[in-house]
Amino acid sequence: MPRPRCPTRFIPLLPFVGLLIGCATPNARDGHVPDFARRPYEPFSRTGAVAIALREWRLFGSQVADEDPADRPSIDPAAKAERLPGLWQRVGEYWWLGLDADDPARRWTGKHDAAGRMFPAEDDGSFAWSAAFISYVMRIAGAGRHFPYSASHSVYIDAARATSLGKPTGIALWAEPADRYAPQAGDLVCFGRDGAQGLRFEDLPAGRFASHCAIVVAVAPGEISVVGGNVEDTVALTHVPVTAGGVLTAPGGGAIDPRYPWSVVLRVLYDE
To answer: Model pTM?
Structure first.
């Protein structure tokens, strides 16, 4: 299914000008976004989204997070990547560019609140940036107004499910069950956490709920590689086991990955 295209307004005798007016004119929500991403200069592509995610992973030191979260050692607050010079600013860019201009959270950084005050490292759960990271990747890759940029993964999980239920959302996402669809590079894989850990595909849309999504950056037999933000307070790559058919769960939702209850794949409707 092709994703929705940027609406255009054509001016008689000047069709090219009409195209520019329809696709390039900023509004109050995306006027802070660079022209190359807002227009965009090139098609919204899987290759581009994956390259951006991997670029950010390398920037944060190419960390691999394959251990069970329950087995992870505690991190010295002073050593958290999100609070280090050069990196707390980068997290700030995820907030600033990933969210719409009317969202107060876009003023946050990896260690500052909207007023520029440094918050204690132990309070960073109130400033979780994993959804801002995904929003940033989609924005810079050129999703334009066809992605529901948000500080909460549940917003675009529910929007993707609404699209797959036939509602005219105008977004470039389609929700797929984790036991039937094999994620491809550029897709998003998600699960509910905390109180929503037992979330099932059939429960969607479910309103605001705690969750996590990562972007698939590589697919291999028996395994996919995903990159997520705010994993161990950094951008990290995780190797995720899949079935022989490439899906995340066994038929009926049986867990394949003992660490994470993957429950939904968001198929991104790229231009190419």
So the answer is: 0.90
